[in-house]
Predict the structure.
Amino acid sequence: MSHDEAIDPNQPLEFQTEKSRLNILGFWIFLGAEIALFGTLFATYFVLTGRLADGPGPSELFELRGVLIETFILLTSSFTCGIAIHEMRRGSRKGLMIWFILTMLLGLGFLYFEIEEFIHYIHEGASLQTSAFWSAFFTLLGTHGAHVSLGIGWMTMILIQLARNGLNSTTARKAFIISLYWHFLDVVWIFIFTGVYLLGMVM
Amino acid sequence: MTQNSHSNFPWNHVIGFILSIALTLLSVWIALYTSLSITAIIWIIVSLAIIQAGIQLFMFMHIREGEGGAQVFTMVYSAIIGVIIVAGTIWVINSMMHSMSM
Amino acid sequence: MQLDEFFVTGDPLIYGADVSIILSLIGIIFVLTKYKKWKWLWNEWLTTVDHKKLGVMYIISAVLMLFRGGVDAMLMRAQLTLPNNEFLDSSHYNEIFTTHGTIMIIFMAMPFLIGLMNVVVPLQIGARDVAYPFLNAVSFWTFFMGAMLFNISFIIGGSPSAGWTSYVPMAGNELSPGPGQNYYLLGLQVAGIGTLLTGINFLVTILKMRAPGMTLMRMPMFTWSSAITCVLIIFAFPVLTVALALMTLDRIFGAHFFTLMDGGMPMLWANLFWIWGHPEVYIVILPAFGIFSEVISTFSRKNLFGYKAMVYSMVVIALLSFIVWVHHFFTMGADASVNSFFSLTTMAIAIPTGVKIFNWLLTLYKGRIKINTAMLWSLAFIPNFVIGGVTGVMLAMAAADYQYHNTYFLVAHFHYVLISGTVYACFAGLYYWYPKVFGHKLNETLGKISFWIFVIGFNVCFFPMYFLGFAGMPRRVHTYAEDTGWFELNAVASVGGVLMAIGFVIIVYNIYYSIRYAERVKTGDPWDGRTLEWSTPAPVPYYNFAKIPDVHGLDPYWQIKKEGKQELDIEEERLEQIHMPDNSGVPVIMSVLLFIAGFGLVFEWMWMAIAATIGVIVTMIMRSFDPDEGHHVEVEEIKEIERNVRRKED
């Protein structure tokens, strides 16, 4: 057995091979790049705040209720995703898959409310083309939403692989990495909730 | 985390979840239902958001496992870069808007 | 769209280019078919995940791009030699300086250095490949397809013309209608994916795949510089990605980020562009510093003076380079406190850079210096780069910058840092590591001739530009009146430009000449090197190291030689089978699809963009289901290969 495939049984399943350890570290570094990416979108959004042209402003359109629903759904999905990994570490493939499916359903629910919110804004005359502010709003939120959609698609792939190949060091690593991604989307949302919605309603 | 705790009840996650719900509600209350100054509100709710992000990283994302040191370093460094990008941009652009309107 | 709008028409220069492109394509297809090389091309190159082959492809592409960017430069010099010249009109001139700048930075300097990183870094740290060989191939092909997308603009649809910085409103729909600017946005976007992946890939490789015993402070300086470069890439490129995406939304989807109407803010583009742009400058200079460190240390036969100071100065640069970006637009109207802050940080970043100059000088001091082509490039770098650096500090003073900015003084400054820094380093690295990859050296006589012609040409070309700047000549003008008095210096600069072109041609000829006539090297260590890459045979077997070396200090291979230790004895040594990654066709297919998606967006043909994007997603799903377990090289096969490469040495 060569060095690259040496199994270290003292580690959790997803850390057992060298390849897994490399991939997980690489993914953390990728998340660092994602922070720079969302940082730039936030910078753009804050600078363009208040540049409404003739369009409506955020305080006229933002509604706490819908936003809180989206926030709680996403927070809960982050929790269920964490439980999924907890189940994985107990060696339960079934538990992992059930909690992942729950996470995905919550993700879909989040997308449903977000898209409904966007449609509402567009009806009220606020779209990507309305003003600099709304361009920045839709791009920041849209990028996050696109990440969530991608995450759902990606999780589906991993669920198929879990069903087909069972829980082994490869599928465990993949499940762990998608969980990092999913939690990270929640981190981004926390800042969107605070920086976009709460500040938008206050100012 | 020891091997043993894996089979136990996921306390970390439950506490983290409750905390994040509570912190979310707290920032809503501070932002919308108190009469603090805007500056104070911004400082408080941004701090609460940072705490929440920390909860995700440390209680949900197992940041200290694997290459723990490198991972924490990556997140700290990216946070610094993120702050430079956001605060720097706001500072520079506001300065230019200000001098243009003079 | 009419066909004559699709193809660029009406310019004899471009018709000439069309003909030569078609002829070379026919030539390539003919040769490949005649010698039945299609399968070889696919198996050995297009699907390879070997870091050395990817590195070679990076460098070949970069040399091609150097040619393209160089032709642009020659056209500009031809236009500016005489006052009131009518050779190029202003819009054509705008296109040429735009593509010159973009190609040289994004598609020449970076890929050349990343190519050298690909070839050298795994060998220097005693690794068999990079952390993610598959992603490495994705990196190369997205870069290549992005470069192609950008480059076809001049025959299909028209080139961008808003400068490599693409400032708005110049780059907006009103002043840059048509596909040109879209090519810039999409070409850079596609190539940027590859660069970001390279950053992550090499950082993890360097952090995790070093040979046992190689601590961080025992890493060769080129590896260190690559690691820091990766950090800069990882945090700077997402900013470019966003900036490009926002402008794409403005131009194609009617958003208002940088528009003059509806609340858009043109200054925000400059701000975001340079948050990426300044780290980018260090992305193309730090690996150059690493190359010079290796070359100077090897040919002074001493270890690098002040290794630690060198490392710490690069770490400081990694942080400081993110807080100097406003110095690129001091005159845009920020107030005194902002300009002072960025002026100070800019001057501060000159300190770690200055430290390095002294390190190199003290490495040379009392060394047993051997002069050859690689060393000549490194020695010429020091004084030329100091000129560029000192004029940079002049520009760093915000108040003084109001005088210099937008003149040829600036043009001279950044060519002095980028050519004598990056381009000299690329040539030094090419001469230095060439035998490692190809098994023969490049001819020294031709190398020295090309060196002298190029370096003299460079100084003749760009030194006068400082004075043109003082005389008030603004950059990016396509012509000037006779009574400005700028003719003489411009004529001198053009002579220098011609010399540089001759130097470049000799370098390329030298590659051809050496492939045909150079003596094959008998050892993997033709320079009496110090670092681990020289402990492998030349050309390097695809698994790099039959046995992973143990490292006990800085310059490990030098240490092994000094202690008189026996080279690896292949018959005696207990070898183990080696695990290697499999080739994959997915990266090249994925990148071609990205090219098509980008092309669709350039012309706003959404059906094409959407279809190709779906294709990209399909390739990603295919990849997700690919178990990609790699294969094992058996001990007997390793012994066979090692016997063959080592037999030559006897």
Summary: The mean pLDDT of chain A is 93. Residues 57-202 of chain A form a domain with the Four Helix Bundle (Hemerythrin (Met), subunit A) fold (CATH 1.20.120.80). The two ends of chain A are 63 Å apart (CA to CA).
